[in-house]
Amino acid sequence: MAREHGRDRDDRDSEFTDKLVHINRVAKVVKGGRRFGFAALVVVGDQKGRVGFGHGKAREVPEAIRKATDAAKRGLIRVPLREGRTLHHDVAGRHGAGKVYLRAAPAGTGIIAGGPMRAVFETLGMQDVVAKSIGSSNPYNMVRATFDALKHQDSPRSVAARRNIKVSSLQSRRREGADDQAASE
């Protein structure tokens, strides 16, 4: 029985893809020389709208990566994607001095983003997005700012549910607003 449970967990783990974003090496000076430690930043996703990041520290690189991957799987978030390929609307996120702007893009654009943000979008399964990082280029801050922006992403379905209306009436209101704006100009 215990074996079957372990196999199920392996199957569940295999559905995730993980990307190593950054490894930091730190040295502690001791009497005999230096002791090295490693910190890893890993992004994990199922390429269907779920993504998470984790941070792990250890004396060996593989152990730090394993700890970071486990932490990332514990903190997964679900992001609504339009047509399964891009964002529903433009959004900004920040963490510390790191600021990011994410923009929805037409089909065929691809992922236009810097290193840490690109890893998040690839593991998320997003195919078209334009992203800009402003401020801190620290990978930890960039990943956290990207996650802040993704948490503020709303789908039309969730907005309609919050307002207790149907999605179709939400879209017709949006068109009416665009017609009113065009008429006023």
From TrEMBL:
Pfam families: Ribosomal_S5, Ribosomal_S5_C
Domain S5 DRBM as annotated: residue spans: 16-79
KW Ribonucleoprotein (keyword) present: yes
Origin: domain of life: Bacteria
GO molecular function per UniProt: rRNA binding; structural constituent of ribosome
Swiss-Prot/TrEMBL keywords: Ribonucleoprotein, Ribosomal protein, RNA-binding, rRNA-binding
Residues that span the membrane, as ranges: none
UniProt region (Disordered), positions on chain: 154-185
One Gene Ontology biological process: ribosome biogenesis
Cellular-component GO terms for this entry: cytoplasm; small ribosomal subunit
Subunit organization: Part of the 30S ribosomal subunit. Contacts proteins S4 and S8.
NCBIfam families: rpsE_bact
Domain comment (free text): The N-terminal domain interacts with the head of the 30S subunit; the C-terminal domain interacts with the body and contacts protein S4. The interaction surface between S4 and S5 is involved in control of translational fidelity.
Function: With S4 and S12 plays an important role in translational accuracy. Located at the back of the 30S subunit body where it stabilizes the conformation of the head with respect to the body.
Family: Belongs to the universal ribosomal protein uS5 family.
Protein name, as recorded: Small ribosomal subunit protein uS5
Organism of provenance: Rhodoplanes roseus
